[in-house]
């Protein structure tokens, strides 16, 4: 039942993505937000690995950004990692045709070697998006846990507002993060993004969006400008 609910939720949001008319050609360059004529879709994947490289890993955090340069709008949708989807190009794994969404990245990684296209895990995840929802991905960003932590620290930390208590499976009756505002370093931001509430695992997708909002705010703050080279 949960899978059906997730699928209907994703389908309803994707319809709002696809219903928007693609951006037409822009006029003269008149601002800092000029870009491609059409809408751009960017796949953002957070993997579950702490290692330096990207040889293996599951795509446990998956988001798609819809960037409309003409109207200067950015929309974001998060995909629960446990969605049951068709994963193309992996039938050599004992005839596999379907799996959880986070496995689409895993089977595409260089270490697994199943995917014959470009982009390794991100490439297969993008192809999975196309096959299941008709979503054409233009670019991708992949971060493992080590890189995510280092990026937040390089920015000097991020500010977030947590709207609901966050619990973990290990201590289901004691909130790890009560409601309120926080200033996170890299490790704290990573733990906030990773905790899985035993009562509602879908809320982790919401927290990923909260982290993205905090990153956006910090990246475009005046204090960040001197840190750009780092």
Spans of at least 5 consecutive residues with low confidence = 1-16, 18-27
- Overall mean pLDDT stands at 84
Largest sheet: 4 strands, mixed
Class by alpha and beta content: alpha+beta
Termini separation: 46 Å
Strand order of the largest sheet: 3-2-1-6
Q: How many DSSP-defined strands?
A: 8
Shape: globular
If helices are DSSP runs of H or I spanning 4 or more residues, what is the number of helices?
6
Percent helix range: 25-40%
String of helices and strands = HEEEEEHHEHEEHH
Strand content: 15-25%
Q: How large, in whole angstroms, is the Cα Rg?
A: 18 Å
Topology readout:
Layout: H1 2-18, E1 40-47, E2 59-68, E3 73-79, E4 84-86, E5 98-100, H2 101-108, H3 120-133, E6 139-143, H4 145-154, E7 158-162, E8 180-184, H5 186-194, H6 203-219
Description:
This protein is α+β, with helices and mostly antiparallel strands. It is built from six helices and eight strands. The strands form three sheets. The chain has a four-stranded mixed beta sheet with strand order 3-2-1-6, with helices on both faces. The chain has a two-stranded antiparallel sheet with strand order 4-5. The longest helix has 17 residues, at 2-18. The termini are far apart.
């Amino acid at each position: 039942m949960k899978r059906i609910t997730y699928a209907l939720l994703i389908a309803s949001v994707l319809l709002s993505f696809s219903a928007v008319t693609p951006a037409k050609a822009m006029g003269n360059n008149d601002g800092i937000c000029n870009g491609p004529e059409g809408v751009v879709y960017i796949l953002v994947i957070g993997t579950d690995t702490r290692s330096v490289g990207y040889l293996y890993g599951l795509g446990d955090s998956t988001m798609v950004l819809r960037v409309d340069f003409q109207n200067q709008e950015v929309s974001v949708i998060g995909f629960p990692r446990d969605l049951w989807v068709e994963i193309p190009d992996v039938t050599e794994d004992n005839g596999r045709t379907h799996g959880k969404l986070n496995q689409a990245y895993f089977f595409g990684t260089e270490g697994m070697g199943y995917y014959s296209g470009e982009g390794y895990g991100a490439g297969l995840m993008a192809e999975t998006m196309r096959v299941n929802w008709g979503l054409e991905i233009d670019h991708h960003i992949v971060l493992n846990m080590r890189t995510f932590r280092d990026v937040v620290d390089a920015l000097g930390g991020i500010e977030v507002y947590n709207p609901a208590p966050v619990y973990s499976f290990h201590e289901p009756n004691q909130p790890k993060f009560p409601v309120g505002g926080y200033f996170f370093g890299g490790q704290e931001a990573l733990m906030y993004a990773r905790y899985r509430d035993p009562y509602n695992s879908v809320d982790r997708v919401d927290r990923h969006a909260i982290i993205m909002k905090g990153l956006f705010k910090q990246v475009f703050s005046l204090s960040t400008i001197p840190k750009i080279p780092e």
